[in-house]
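Attaching the record inline, Q. Sequence:
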Amino acid sequence: MNAKAGSIAWLSRLNFFLADVRDGLGPFLGVFLMGHGWAADDIGYVMTLGGIAGMLATTPAGALTDAVRAKRLVVGIGSVLVVAGSLLLLVSPSFTITAVSQVGTGIVGAIIGPAIAGLTLGIVGQQGLPSQLGNNEAWNHGGNVFSAALAGALGYFWGLPAVFVLMAVMAVASLLCLSRIRPEDIDHDVARGLDPQRSADQPQVSTWRVLAGSRPLMLLALAMMLFHLGNAAMLPLLSQSVVSRGHADPALYTALTVIVAQLVMIPTALLAGRFADRKGYWLLITVALLALPVRGLVAGVWDSPWALLPVQMLDGVGAGLLGVALPGSVARILQGSGHINIGLGAVTTIQSIGAALSPALAGVVAKHYGYGAAFAALTAIALLALVVWGVLAERREHGVAASAMVAGSVSK
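Structure, as predicted:
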């Protein structure tokens, strides 16, 4: 029996409970603020502030994860701070307090992600990483479905303050899971991507040289940026298109979009972890990128509320695959460098630029040329991401066999 089996099991459960914690109030924030008389534009401003803060914090958060050995403490403090920041809104939902809360939540949420990735790698190592990433993602998506359904029910019967209570309970449960992960089961050198066989007097390569000099990493980041540029606005655009024609109830339709995608992500993540164990990550990323233009084509051509089902099922496939393949591929590219988590943070920051620009681009096209043209534009961008990946990325860099990536990637 694996001596770390207990810690691995509690790591999976940690991902379940953190699903409701790391993003704060999420979709409930807008509803809560509207109930306190907020205008739609002010809600948008504070949500944007939180998103920008999270994007800017992602790369430094990766550097923090590489540097610290108290990764359990980082996750624990982060969970407490997110809940505390959200509870502030119950006391005073003023613009200043809400803005501070959302900026803090964005920063702390950016820290929790790399810390979980570092914990996972430190516990299971490169060999067990693909399978465990699949388990992490499956438990995370399961937690999202569970918490969304429970929050909806609690909010219906007892009002939105019940959602705050649920978040606090989930945070306490996540702290319990953290306490059951044994510190001695975490190899902090492996967690940052150092080679266990590395000589103590071997000089370390600088972070900048590792990141900027790695062609495989830069191509991965470019493909992910284009993917999210085409992806982020797809669901909001579909919802706007359907609701604007009076074809569906806005609240019910939005809830269904979340549930359908999350339910598909659970088995997809599990299968992705098993597949990556045998075949690597290249094909998983390819399929995820391929799902997006198909999704855009269906959304643009099928003028019906029922387009929700295939569109969100494809979204679940793409997100489920990338949730496993992206951190796994970065870990493989930067193996031996000691900079895996900052590398993942850098890729996440770059892809976030695409996600931030996507709604604005789609909105402009939809306003001047209609929803069909907007879907066509997003589909074209998705195809460009697929071309960048399929033509320029080298399959061997994302394959099964781990290799000495630092020298190879820096020299390219």
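The chain has a mean pLDDT of 83. The chain has two domains: 5-191, 207-410.

More tomorrow.
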